[in-house]
Design goal:
The structure is a homodimer. The first copy, chain A, is α/β, with parallel strands linked by helices. Helix content of chain A is 32%, strand content 24%. Chain A has 17 helices and 26 strands. The interface between A and B is large, with 71 and 70 residues. Chains A, B: Pathway: Aromatic compound metabolism; 3,4-dihydroxybenzoate biosynthesis.
Chain lengths: 606, 606
């Protein structure tokens, strides 16, 4: 099947109309829905807008919305027809042929399908006279028509070739609608498909629709099933995004448009049943460090049992290893003020080149990394936040060479046997306006899936929402995305939610003892926390005393035990995690006390 | 009646426990509710926390919450009693005597009032043994007990002197509860009152409660009636704020605590029926201008018919007058980079000193303005955003001296008779995290009331929420507060929502002609907007042509006609408004096209 056309409503994006069109074209969209307020806000006559779209390779697939047309008393319908005539005039000047008509909310409207069908047929007559057509959509809050099947009954009754359906996934799913019946609608009567995802929210549909829609794959709606039914019906029009979201409406439209189109590419994969990429665990994590505080990071690694096993032959980059865990520590150049941060995540794959190609197909820019002589050619793409995603080969047989033999000169140091087994997870902290994009990147490019619903905790400097993404391999890649719900103003200087690298360990108390022996101050949250563990019956008093001595935190149900460092280099901390049973946590319940203690340690330290 | 004690839950404020306590004490609170997670996040033992509170003059009025105690099967209740014993131990160390027990959400709980009463009585026995007491609160989402009257039936049934009610205004009003019955509860059985306001939101009570509570006077709940009933019942405990709000939870706790306490002072005024201050209109607006672009502002004023009537004797400040409108234009010092902005709002009052004193009673800091010789002593307080609020005498009889005869040297210029009558309104644009505080300031200090529900419009760079506040005097003081719902990141450089000063005029087209004659470019939104006015039947084609020629915008229903300038000095625009009938608008519906055109004009200009 040829690729479906991808379209996007201008209402999804921020900026002036010209900003939106430029962004949509740059992201590879084929067309737009022109949202009337964007036209009204433009000083250009419709012909000029049409030319601009054509120059950018964008069709104007839909003119929208026209409201409150059907089921009206005669005088109101006469006024409505004047609005229709104007809309058709503008459409002619734009060179577009399909108008979206939303089901009426007008309090004068009556619940009379015959009247609605007759009036819509009149509207369709006028459209047909000009070679145009009307796509009728049931708003979830329409006064009398608010389900897709009701809108279809009216379209059937009108039986007019220029009148068809517009199916909107939000209006359908937000009212618990079932898309299965769409299979039985003749494909040629489905004039348009508007796609939006959304989180399940227990709130009125209208504000839910106007503020909280998301791009497909970012929310909870089953859009794959919907498009499968539309495929079965024979719908061959565009997949068009109509996503009203407060965050996207104020965000740079260029990355937002890329995020939007990635969502459609992901949906196409889901529909085709494309298997998710098979991963083989986390090969390494790259930390970029601030030259002034690099020692904070490397001292902590050493205290956790890591050995510096290699020194890059040409760059201030060192390789640290412990058990199956590898960290690459790159000291930033003196004039690079970006600070200590997770700069790269390397995943193993049986087909690294295929994984990288797939990422670029999903609009992640390929990063050409200079490499010389016998250095490994690392395949990498850049995530939306600038983090590099390295695609590495699978782990070699014991004794075999790994993928970068030439890059690092061995230091001769061999890590001692210790409790560290590998990388448990990496926790990243995008700002709240970039979380949906980061989640979609993890889901599509890496094929990770959310492990559970998001958690929200009240941290000392604001509410923090987190979610764990992972694949289901025996050695999973796990990424936690955490962000403050709101953040503005000068309070809470510094980074309130630092990133972390969590190491999987067999014995967290052994790590604590080794760290103490090495002089590393693990985070101490104080006695109240341990008294509470006992009061809640999580551990007994003797165990609590031992945990406190070792500074071990115990997340909610007790299956996730961890020690954490203070914040290193201003933005990252290390964590050693011992899991029991099939624990799927990531320390979310502990985050508030952990963050308070980290803040106090920072104050004490400086 | 002696002043009621004011208390605040530590959960209302952002930061570490010590930040919260400092902020509460500095704002004049008498006590706090200690939220258990704040205790767990503190490394200090309870005794040290108690001492810190005592040193700050803060009582610990409540320890909260203890959850899931009542209606439980025996084994679960035994575990719950262990938690109770721990809580009572901690309370003893804190020196606090009242614990909040929330109605159970535990799925093991049974709907059995006798069991619940018996178990709560057991808990109360343990508290009584230590001289403590239990305040039982119905959570709005409690499994079996979720209304205050149900919680009261259980407390009555338990009939234990150490068991009483905690009344929480959110839990009561969010479920549509009626507080009238509280009059009949014996005052000594009401152990505690938690106050929170909230906007009416059609969503589940739990997320509504956890994210969207507001301080009294910032939302839609009738808290005055509630406290009146509790007064009638004889409740004499503290008024305590328990406000969970995502914005406050990440905001600087010092101004947030002041905002919080102002809300209780306002509530006390409402309860006492204190009359709102009588105002006599807007005396003047002070604009601070950037020296480099000062001429943009003064040229526009001149084009609108203003004359520079006075020059300050000692400062780079000029007085501009037209009809009853006065603007004071103060050129900033060259090293003051704050940019052009509304720096002051002056209102007239029959008792300026009383108004200023009232403002300081409501925690607005008095601003001592240096004045020399025969200069007027201007009374001023500072609003939370730094704007000065001047309290001026009423307008003198015609021919009489106004309040600042000595400050300005007359230039000899007299404004020509023109269409400008006075100041229609001032529109300010606080960032979204400061809107609730700004609204409360307007409501309490100035006694302004919201004129209608807030409007939300989709502006080119994000959704903007606005609300008009005004008094009901013949010459009203009107303030519009507008803010973007979300704003983060580097898109939309410059200020997306500029402030404005709107002038009331008799004939907006005459203003437009005069402005054109003076060479002032009024904002031109282009033809699509006018075509749409005709299509919607707001005006006919001939009138639309004339409006377009004069660049007049017509808000939603046609009663508000205005011309606006481009953005002057980077942040402020002027507007001339002609109202017909009892129009109560402020150009909200036009804001998106206006903002798009202003943005385009800025691009074209620079």
């Amino acid at each position: 099947m040829s690729r479906r056309r991808h379209s996007i409503a201008t209402a999804c994006l921020s900026g002036l109309l010209e900003d939106k069109l430029d962004a949509a074209a740059a992201a590879g969209f084929d067309g737009v829905e022109l949202f009337v307020p964007d036209l009204l806000g433009s000083p250009e006559p419709p012909e000029v807008i049409a030319r601009r779209c054509a120059d950018l390779g964008l069709a104007i697939d839909l003119y929208q919305p026209v409201r409150d047309l059907e089921g009206l008393p005669p005088d109101a319908f006469a006024a409505a027809l004047r609005r229709v005539d104007h809309a058709l005039d503008v459409m002619a000047r734009l060179g577009t042929t399909t108008a979206l008509v939303c089901s009426a909310v007008d309090p004068r409207g009556v619940d009379d399908d015959d009247l609605a069908a007759a009036q819509l047929a009149q509207v369709a007559d006028r459209a047909a006279d000009r070679g145009m057509r009307i796509a009728y959509e049931a708003l979830a809050w329409g006064r009398h028509v608010n389900t897709w099947d009701h809108s279809w009954r009216i379209v059937e009754r009108a039986d007019h070739p220029a009148l068809g359906l517009c199916v909107d996934s939000f209006h359908l799913y937000s009212r618990g609608g079932d898309p299965a019946g769409l299979r039985d609608v003749p494909g040629e009567k489905i004039f348009f498909l508007q796609l939006a995802d959304a989180p399940h929210l227990a709130m009125d549909v209208l504000p839910w629709s106007r503020h909280h829609r998301l791009f497909p794959g970012q929310g909870d709606f089953d859009l794959t099933t919907l498009v499968a039914h539309l495929d079965a019906a024979g719908y061959d029009g565009p997949w068009s995004l109509e996503v009203f979201n407060d965050v996207f409406r104020q965000a740079d439209p260029r990355p937002a448009a890329v995020d939007a189109r990635r969502s459609l590419l992901g949906l196409a994969e889901d529909l085709a049943g494309t298997p998710r990429p098979r991963l083989g665990g986390t090969a390494f994590v790259e930390l970029a460090t601030d030259p002034g505080t690099s020692g904070e990071v490397t001292d902590a690694l050493a205290a956790f049992g890591f050995a510096r096993t290699g020194e890059h032959r040409r760059k201030p980059v060192s390789l640290w290893e412990a058990g199956g865990a590898r960290l690459v520590v790159r000291e930033r150049l003196p004039d690079d003020r970006a600070g200590t941060a997770v700069a790269g995540l390397a995943v193993r794959s049986p087909d690294p080149e295929g994984l990288a190609r797939r990422a670029t197909d999903l609009l992640a820019p390929r990063e050409e990394l200079p490499h010389a002589g016998d250095e490994a050619e690392l395949r990498a793409v850049r995530a939306p936040d600038g983090t590099l995603l390295f695609c590495c080969p699978e782990r070699p047989e014991p004794g075999g060479d790994d993928f970068w033999p030439g890059d690092f000169a061995p230091t001769g140091t061999i890590p001692a046997d210790g409790p560290v087994r590998g990388i448990d997870h990496v926790a990243l902290t995008p700002p709240y306006d970039l979380v949906a994009e980061a989640e979609l990147f993890c889901r599509t490019v890496l094929g990770l899936a959310p492990v559970a619903e998001p958690t929200e905790v009240v941290a000392p400097f604001g509410v923090v929402r987190s979610r764990l993404f992972a694949d289901d391999a025996p050695d999973p890649v796990r990424v936690v995305l955490s962000s403050s719900l709101v953040r503005r103003g000068g309070w809470a200087p510094g980074v309130p939610a630092p990133q972390s690298v969590a190491l999987a360990v067999d014995d967290v108390e052994a790590v604590a003892r080794a760290a103490a022996a090495a002089g590393l101050a693990l985070l101490d949250v104080g006695p109240n926390y341990y008294d509470d563990l006992v009061a809640r019956g999580v551990v007994d008093a003797a165990e609590a005393a031992r945990l406190r001595e070792h500074r071990v935190l115990v997340d909610a149900d007790g299956g996730y035990r961890h020690v954490v460092t203070e914040v290193l280099g201003g933005r990252v901390f290390l964590e050693a995690v011992q899991r029991t049973g099939d624990d799927r946590g990531y320390g979310a319940a502990d985050a508030p006390v952990r963050m308070a203690a980290q803040r106090r340690a920072r104050h004490a330290g400086g």
